[in-house]
Amino acid sequence: MTRVVSVGAGQWRDLLWWLALIGFGLALTAWAVHSGAGLGTASAPFLGRYRFQLSPSTLLAPAVAIAILALQAGGWFERTRWGLVCAASYLAGLAWALSLVLVDGEAGLTRPLLDPDNYLSQVGAIHDAPLHYLRHFNQDSAAHSVAARGHPPGPVLLLWALQRIGLRNELDLALLITAVGTLTIPLVLSAVRGVCGETPARRYAVVLILAPYAIWVAVSTDVFSAVLGAAMVAAGVRASDRRRTGLRAGAWALLSGALLGLASLFSYSAPWLGLSVVCLYFARRRPFLNVGTGLGALLPVLVADGLGFAWLSGLSVARADYATRVEPYRPALWWSVISMVALLLASGPVLFASLRKMRNTPGWPFLVGAGCAVAFSILAGLARGGVEHAWLAFFPWLTVSAVAPNRQAGPDIPAPTVLAAVGAGAAIVIEAVLATL
């Protein structure tokens, strides 16, 4: 009984700290807006625009959240077969993401795709010559849409390919993006189970399902790099499993690297997740697997280079565009603080619990890659709006420690249900007042 009370008190303490930080951060954000800081968006700390939207569909998200929390409270995730937990977590996460954006009806899904600054507006530039587009991607950067300028050509080429096979309707495309993006849930659960154990993974399910960043999973093409990154880490976990040796381990390591290379063709920040796998291999005393993963990561990048797209040159072009188009107009100091506010809101109060206990979890390698990516973005002055999209690949890994014991080798703790529920409530409020882009 003492341990249960202590755990409950810990969740409420984490919640109070999160609320205090959010209140302070939002107050600073409001001060920045009203003092004329020139933040470059009308909806700081996010991109989009503010409006207040209530409709019958507003009831969908609370209903989905209550159903998931009821399953958690009834112990369903604890006693059900593991495969069914993963499948149900995926479907529940998909329902949660869709229920949030459907506050605006169909427009909640299609509005971001139809934005002229997004990737879809760039698809017409490919015509019927994807290789020509790839070869001239870096040289023609100034003619690209805003989103395409800051990324490798992977997202635009994928959207073009989907249109070529007949997926031209924006609503169908948005539903596919959401369905693919939600795959991060079973992939992350698989990785957490392989490293931290099955009980923590089961208790982590409710955190992933009801994550506030699901708002952007349903509207952002950046989920493709998030899914590839999650698959990469999951493959690295399988490669380094002690039961897997020789060619089998090498094949999984090679696959992990290939997925990392593919993710790098969708996002220049994706390679940061590779650091998680490097740390995992060393933590599990399988450092030689880094050779296989490194070779695998080079393959997609070298193939793209052979077809005309030089990844490093693309990174330099994107950085130069950022330096002229964004840096002079969005103050780094303000946005460093505001990006942290966005991180706290998008991850929910579970993030605070995770950061407090990160030293206690065997899953610390997961936090290294994601944490270093976020820290580098902020310290380098690159986080100046839009982190709710740019960090989608990192959000799921930052909260892993929330299901860690309160002390090293201590007993397992219950799922952070209170924190997950408050995070879900925060997502519902955000979606009610923010028209996402």
TrEMBL record:
The keyword Membrane applies. The chain crosses the membrane at residues 15-33, 54-76, 82-103, 173-192, 204-237, 288-312, 332-352, 364-383, 413-434. It comes from the Bacteria. Keywords: Membrane, Transmembrane, Transmembrane helix. This is Glycosyltransferase RgtA/B/C/D-like domain-containing protein. The lineage of its organism: Bacteria, Bacillati, Actinomycetota, Actinomycetes, Micromonosporales.
